[in-house]
C-alpha cells in the first residue's frame, strides 16, 4: 500500500517557506524579543543564578539554575529554547525563570548543541544529556529530583518530545521523575524543514529525519502533556501540534491541546511569564508533584 501523501507535498517553494519557516510567516519577529527584553534583564539582574554549569565537554552543553527560595526540595522546571535547532541562547530566556521562582519552582534554562556545527542527532542527544544531568545533580541546588517538569517552544518543544520518547530506564533514571510537559508551537517531524531555506544550516538527511521524528516513536514517559500553538501561526505549523497530539493519543495518552487566538510564533513566548495565561498556568500546574 502506498504511503499517504504528506500535507506539504503540493506546496510551491514560496508556500512551503511561509508554512514552515516561522520568520518568513512573521517578518517583524525581532520586535517581540524587544518587548520581553526588560523582563529578561530584570531576571538576569535580580534572581539568584548558578550560571554556565557544564554538563559535558561541548561549549554549548551548559545550563543556568535559578533556585527557588524556601525550605525543603523545590519542584524543578526545565525550559528548552527554540531557534530551529540552530540558534538562540539560554541567556535570552531568563524571563521564564522569573515566574517560576516567584511560585516556588526552581528553574533550569538550558543550552544544547546547535546546527550546523552539530547534527540534529547530536542536538537531541545533548538536550537529553542535559536533562539527565539535572536528574542526577539538581538535589545539590535544592531541587527535587523526583519532581521535574519541562517546557519548550518551537524546536524546544521537539526536544521536550524527545525527552518523552527517551528510554530513561536504560540511562539509569526513573522516568517517573518527570511529572509534566508543556510543548508550545513545536515542530515534531523534521521532514518539512528539509525543504526550507533553514536546511542550509540544518543539513538534514533522510536518516537523521527518521531518527528525530517524534511522531513515529512511542512516548515512554507517562506524565501529563499540554500541547499548544498560536492561532495566528500558519496552518501547516499548527497542524504539527495536532499530529503530535494524535500520536500521543494512539499510545494511550490524553494530552491537552490548545490553540491560542491572536498569538503568532513569537509573541506566544510572552505568556510563558504570565501565571494567569494558558501557558503559564499549565507550567505551574504541571510543576507540582502529583498526589
UniProtKB/TrEMBL annotation:
Q: Which UniProt keywords apply?
A: Hydrolase
Which ranges carry the BD-FAE-like domain? Answer: 63-161
Look up the coiled coil feature and give its residue ranges: none
Residue ranges annotated as transmembrane are none
Q: Which domain of life is it from?
A: Bacteria
Q: Which GO terms describe its molecular function?
A: hydrolase activity
UniProt name for this protein:
Alpha/beta hydrolase
**Source organism of this protein record:** Devosia honganensis
Amino acid at each position: 500500500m502506498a504511503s499517504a501523501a504528506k500535507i506539504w507535498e503540493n506546496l510551491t517553494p514560496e508556500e512551503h517557506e511561509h508554512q514552515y519557516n516561522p520568520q518568513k510567516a512573521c517578518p517583524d519577529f525581532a520586535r517581540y524579543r524587544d518587548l520581553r527584553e526588560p523582563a529578561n534583564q530584570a531576571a538576569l539582574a535580580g534572581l539568584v543564578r548558578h550560571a554556565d554549569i557544564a554538563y559535558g565537554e561541548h561549549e554549548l552543553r551548559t545550563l543556568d539554575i535559578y533556585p527557588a527560595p524556601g525550605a525543603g526540595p523545590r519542584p524543578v522546571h526545565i525550559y528548552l529554547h527554540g531557534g530551529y535547532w540552530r540558534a538562540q541562547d539560554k541567556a535570552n530566556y531568563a524571563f521564564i525563570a522569573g515566574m517560576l521562582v516567584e511560585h516556588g519552582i526552581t528553574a533550569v534554562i538550558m543550552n544544547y548543541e546547535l546546527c550546523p556545527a552539530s547534527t540534529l542527532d547530536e542536538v537531541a542527544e545533548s538536550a537529553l544529556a542535559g536533562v539527565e544531568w539535572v536528574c542526577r545533580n539538581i538535589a545539590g541546588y535544592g531541587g527535587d529530583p523526583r519532581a521535574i517538569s519541562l517546557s519548550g517552544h518551537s524546536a524546544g518543544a521537539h526536544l521536550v518530545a524527545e525527552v518523552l520518547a527517551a528510554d530513561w530506564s536504560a540511562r539509569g533514571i526513573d522516568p517517573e521523575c518527570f511529572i509534566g510537559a508543556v510543548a508550545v508551537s513545536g515542530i515534531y517531524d523534521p521532514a518539512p524543514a528539509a525543504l526550507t531555506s533553514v536546511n542550509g544550516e540544518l543539513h538534514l538527511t533522510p536518516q537523521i529525519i527518521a531518527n528525530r521524528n517524534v511522531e513515529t516513536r512511542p512516548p515512554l514517559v507517562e506524565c501529563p502533556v499540554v500541547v499548544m500553538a498560536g492561532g495566528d501561526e500558519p496552518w501547516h505549523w499548527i497542524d504539527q501540534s495536532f499530529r503530535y497530539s494524535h500520536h500521543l493519543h494512539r499510545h494511550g495518552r490524553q494530552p491537552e491541546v490548545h490553540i491560542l487566538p491572536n498569538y503568532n510564533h513569537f509573541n506566544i513566548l510572552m505568556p510563558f511569564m504570565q501565571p494567569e495565561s494558558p501557558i503559564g498556568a499549565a507550567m505551574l500546574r504541571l510543576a507540582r508533584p502529583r498526589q
